[in-house]
Amino acid sequence: MAIKILTEHINVPGIETFDVYRKQGGYTAVEKALKTLTPESIVEEVKKAGVRGRGGAGFPMGMKWSFLAKPEGVPRYLVCNADESEPGTFKDHYLMKNIPHLLIEGMIISSFALGANKSFIYVRGELMYVIHILEKAIAEAKAKGFLGKNILGSGYDLELVVQPGGGAYICGEETALLESLEGKRGNPRNKPPFPAVKGLYQSPTVVNNVESIATTPWIINNGGEAYAGIGIGRSTGTKLISASGHINKPGVYEIELGVPVEDFIYADEWCGGIRPGHKFKALVAGGSSVPILPANLALTLANGEKRLMSYESLSDGGFATGTMLGSGGFILFDETSCIVRNTWNFSRFYHHESCGQCSPCREGTGWMEKVLHRIEYGHGHQQDIDLLVDVSKKIEGNTICPLGDAAAWPVASAIRHFRDEFQWHIDHPSEATQPGAVYRGEMALV
Amino acid sequence: MEDVKPQLLKVTIDGIEVEVEPGTTILQAARKIGPAVAPPAMCYYQPLKGSGGKCRACLVRVAAGSAKDPRPMPKLVASCLTAVQDGMVVENETSPQVIDARNGVVEFLLLNHPLDCPVCDQAGECDLQNFAFDHGKSTTRYEEDRRTFEKKDIGPYIQLHMTRCILCYRCVYTADQITNKRVHGVLGRGDASEIGTYIEKAIDNDFSGNVIDVCPVGALTDKTYRFKNRVWFSKPVDAHRDCPTCSGKVTLWYRGEDVIRVTARKNEWGEVLEFICNTCRFDKKKTSDWTIEGPTKISRSSVISANKYRADTIKPSFGQRLAAAEYKPIHDERDTSQLDIKQLAPERFAKVLPSAMEPEP
User: Of B53, B75, B191, which is closest to A362 when you measure between CB atoms?
Assistant: First the structure.
């Protein structure tokens, strides 16, 4: 039986209410933390757990917490990044909608550990109904004495605010999120200074993903070592995966890190296999921004071993043969998918969402989108493929925030692994532009 | 009590070591060495707080982070924002990776920037023109339609030609920091972003004209000067007046006897350190309004210096030295006796043309 940390009680009727959540053992971690632990010991437990940021970057959460500057007389803030809007990623939304008190419990513990007396949950503005669910849950928790002044008589005060975002993808980048939270245009800040030193209102701030924060109640109840015992290597614990595409059972699944990719795709417990009569062509393992992999590389490493659902295994071989776990937005494509069209679609998204602050991203994302559009619609030239590779290289690593990389990687990887398909579009424009036309040449289908 | 001087930090840029105070950025350290190693800057503007980091023109490679931690930085960094560390080693012009990134930035900036230098008022004093000259290519790989905008009057004296804008944000910072009635900023996102004013408002405060000076390209232009002249045909002169609003220190741009333009004075990096008021800029265009200080010092490499000669830069010996360097003896085997042409003796040139005395092969 697979272990569940975040979704154990998610199907219990009425779990979104305080009473039901409490009956299932909710808020016991808050009691334990506030009555028996110190902030420092909580940070230590999170460090021991080895939990890595679930927003996409995978940075160790405990280490991020320990970087927080603690100057005297300056407030500290915890901001929960719930601006999930990467195409293919919908796991935070699922968690907040179904079990909001888990996030609130995690926010109380994390805020206490960081010494924050006012914390924010920054939710994507389109998810207004989720915002209402969270606000209702916060009001319940406050009425029961788990938020507000002197929580459980511990002397600790916490105010929790839900802030709707403006609906821009860039506001999911932590510094752009802070700008937006301050009421300004959501442009990323140049780093350094990092938010841990100068974040919200120029005060030390930690920005964590919903899923990361939601793990803390379990860690406090069971100990960091127990959490570190789950998973594989430095990929500890469980991970929510939002699976979509041409699979039999799209949905959000909690897996123990280290499950083979093949098992995750074909097991009935999870994706339930590829849709009948079709073959596995390509995989985007961690949200649209990560490099796409052809089926054979998605299932096996370059050395022939099985690829696992973990940070290390998915990135094995760098971008030449690997990708990233990212945010866990698992999108599978069968042989009916046109990689060129799909890449153009992703590129269109990043072009639209670029904030326009720095020149490589502002101009480069639009350029890539237009060239891809041209190729897809049968007007591509032979030199366009190399042009796309070159433009993506000029963007990658040269922008203020990672949106430039996020725009460049899907294009570069699609050409790296599916160059034949781009070439076919250029060589056979009349054929490629037929409705539903897909390259059927040599490719590794599984 | 003695002043405690901060310990200076040693930083090496393109193999040249320089000592700077803590808190200095790589760009400032490079500028201290000189123009040869100073990275280009399209959005950074030293007097404006918060400027920099956007255009990515000044990216450099940090080959060694510091003496304590000599690991290189994984990515190129914006030199205008990155503070130096003691023992830092920076590669600017010496790094192929940096040059490649800069070539890319020029290409990106020119995707939507029209090459209308022949009719642009900024021609000759345009940062993008210089940047493209140093790092650009003569052709473009961009085939798509370029974005265009209608010209807008954003005040009685300023015209915004958004088509030329490279979104450096300098004018936004200027309006934000030196005026008390900011009405303009950046609207929209991505390559659809544009500089705009708040619902057809005009920029009409006392210092609004300074947005023209800080604009690195020809997007914001002086309506009182537009199409009056090419900058290399005008004669810049430093002047001042007793102004109750600003320092009154300006550059007057003459054509013949007429002052055709007044601007704030720029330093060698093209930055205004003292902003001037609109009265000085737009209303005082008579020589009698000003106390003339003398010719503005312009770099010899600038096109503004074209056709202008100064006693301290043009020496009489210059032409002779040039001729000496390029002298080549003519081997004419024709019989010239009938043509009444006499070859002068090489001894007559010996002093200024040593090569003339070289024995013929």
Answer: B191
